[in-house]
Amino acid sequence: MAKRVPVSLPRFSSPEKIQDFLNTLHRRKNRKNPIVRSPIAALRAGEASCMEGALIAAACLIQSGRQAFLLDLKVGENDTTDVDHVVTLFTEGARWGALSKTSHAVLRYREPVYASARELAMSFFHEYFTHDGKKTLRSFSKPFDIKKKFGTEWITSEHDLYEIAAALDDSPHVSILGTRGAAKLRRADPIEIAAGKLQTPH
User: Fold this and answer.
1) What is the mean pLDDT of each run of 10 residues along the chain (202 residues)?
2) Per-domain residue ranges for the chain?
3) Is 0.90 surpassed by the pTM of this model?
């Protein structure tokens, strides 16, 4: 068995620096087991999915003495054209911001200027569309306090953290609009679709 390379959780003085670090991680290529790696395991590989990036961000926030909440942005139950996205919420005073691991031009970092988690979640609605312009965001979770629910052992775990992803997926979500409302949505413009396809090299 190959020897595991030691790695430690980096320390950052601000959410902005955590986001800068997330941007350096490659997108995850191998989706085989474990489905959701711990922050330490993902850092060892130098890559992360959006869920793993959210966990890394949460771990860094917790390490710096801040609260960390996960936010699940969910597409419709029967929608096979798009996927959910997970970000990490943080607060500055009474305002909410978000850290996000994505290689795309959209669904990225949010400045801490939002008066509520709902207001922040809705800021993703217009950008959440497929390559044909269909807007797919249908619900979002209430702020998920990962430290309160799972402690901190998950940060250095060598086991699959799918249990955390499942708990987030099953947590209370707020519906954005019904089927009738979704049918009336205007599709994104071609220039928006083109911008949405932009990706970082890694």
Assistant:
1) 64 97 92 90 95 98 97 87 94 97 92 98 95 94 98 97 97 89 92 90 76
2) 15-124+140-174
3) yes
The amino acid sitting at 3 is K
